[in-house]
Amino acid sequence: MLPFTLEYDVSKYSWHDINRLPFGDKQHKPWDTLHLLSFSFDYAANISGNFGFFAEAVAFAGYEEELTGSLGANVTGGLSYEIQPNLKLNAGVSGLFHKVHSRPLPVLRLDWNQNATQGFSSSLGFPENTLAYRFDKEYALRLAQTFDDTIYRLADDSSIGHKSYLESVGVVSGLYLDYTPLPGFTGTIGVQYVLHRKFNMYDSNGNKRDVFSLDNALGGLLHLEYKF
Length: 228
What we know:
The chain has no helices and 13 strands. By secondary structure, it is mainly β. The protein has a single domain, classed as Porin (Beta Barrel). A 12-stranded antiparallel beta barrel has the order 1-2-3-4-5-6-7-8-9-10-11-13.
């Protein structure tokens, strides 16, 4: 199996009291459904002894309706150290590149039992913490907390602004069920609770216009992933 992954996420929004929202035209929904499509290449190898390296390149498109102007990239790289069998420390840097803005983020992760075909495994650090239990080759249950920073290109006729952009930032805690009916293909459904939510609004040229802090919110996730 080659180290390529194709992923698709869909986020459905439900709005109440639209006339009281601090953004939009107060008459129409700011947005309804947001999509995130990504294609990634990842590779890891041993350097010498217990030391290794990892690298990942991701091309993504976050959009409401039109794909034009939605493309961005994430590049991650770093070093790993195998403390003992099934326990590995990873440290590196991740860089986001997009029309709206670019920024680096640290990567620090302690992985345990990641190749388990059954039983518990975990990954602790930043930007994600995960505790998982795999029942068998098909089903796994995960409890995860992730720092999320996703940029979407809104619809041409968006009430936020013509061809504008939304950056959604927050800490997402969730419980997920993974189903792998075929080698390489996984479908995920889950319940999420989003903390410290913030919406950054940008115009069609990528210039920041507004920042809004929002209450914590409950939501759901549908995720499809194919590795090949």
